[in-house]
Amino acid sequence: MTRWQKITAVAASLLIACGFLFASPSFAQSPSEEDMLNALRSKAPAVPKTRGLTLGSSQDDGQRAFIDSIRGKTRQLTLGERKKVAEIAKTKPNIDLEIYFEYDSSAIAPNAEPDLMKLGRVLTSADLKGNVFLIAGHTDAKGSDAYNQGLSERRAASVKRFLQRNFDIPDNALVTAGYGEEQLKNTADPYAAENRRVQVVNLENKETAQR
């Protein structure tokens, strides 16, 4: 191994030891506020080609009723609720963020705060204020399933508390869920850093959220 390879390996191990959550590959560096806004902004719904035909209204109403049922919950979501919100999230605007935590802890590290402040400004911007967002915590496959599940839940809750404390976001506008190692981003390498992430999903825009 060359000297440069040794230095790279040591640097990688230090990042892992610090509980590093890797960003989405679409952002080589920390995303800007504009990047976050564009990723989370609701896309305009497609206009039905057939006059008088409303597509997916029953499904949309069902999703809305379910989202309303989990907004503002102080308890952890059940397994069934986690799976259902994960299915809904697949079709919604979302972004993966790199968030630093203290090692083996849900305490947010000081160097994570700038990105969380950017996120808070985006979520309370005129474009997104009033929407409902999912904050989902994910881990890699190291450790037991139960431990990773608990850690991901605590980290998602920490992000929610930070945003509420600094931006006065209503409790029912942020839904938290932990997925542990259930949704590995890199299944080929279960221990890869990119599997340790926080995902933010725009579940509902302000018009439907207020109905």
Quick structural summary:
This protein has helices at residues 3-17, 33-40, 57-70, 79-89, 113-123, 145-167, 206-209; strands spanning 94-97, 132-138, 174-178, 197-204. The chain is α+β, with helices and mostly antiparallel strands.
Q: Keywords, please?
A:
4 strands; 41% helix; single chain; alpha+beta; 211 residues; 60s Ribosomal Protein L30, Chain: A
**CATH homologous superfamily grouping:** OmpA-like domain
Largest sheet: number of strands, sense, barrel closure: 4 strands, mixed
Helicity, as a percent range: 40-55%
Category from helices, strands and their pairing: alpha+beta
How many DSSP-defined strands?
Answer: 4
- List the total number of helices: 7
Could you say how many structural domains there are in total? 1
Net shape: globular
Please state roughly what percent of the residues sit in beta strands, choosing from under 5%, 5-15%, 15-25%, 25-35%, 35-45% or over 45%.
Answer: 5-15%
CATH class: Alpha Beta
Question: Helix and strand succession?
Answer: HHHHEHEHEEH
What is the CATH fold-level name?
Answer: 60s Ribosomal Protein L30, Chain: A
Give me the CATH architecture, please. 2-Layer Sandwich
**Arithmetic mean of pLDDT:** 80
How far is the N terminus from the C terminus?
Answer: 61 Å
* Rg measurement, Å: 18 Å
User: In terms of per-residue confidence, which ranges show pLDDT below 50 for 5 or more consecutive residues?
Assistant: 5-26, 46-56
Strand arrangement, largest sheet? 1-4-2-3
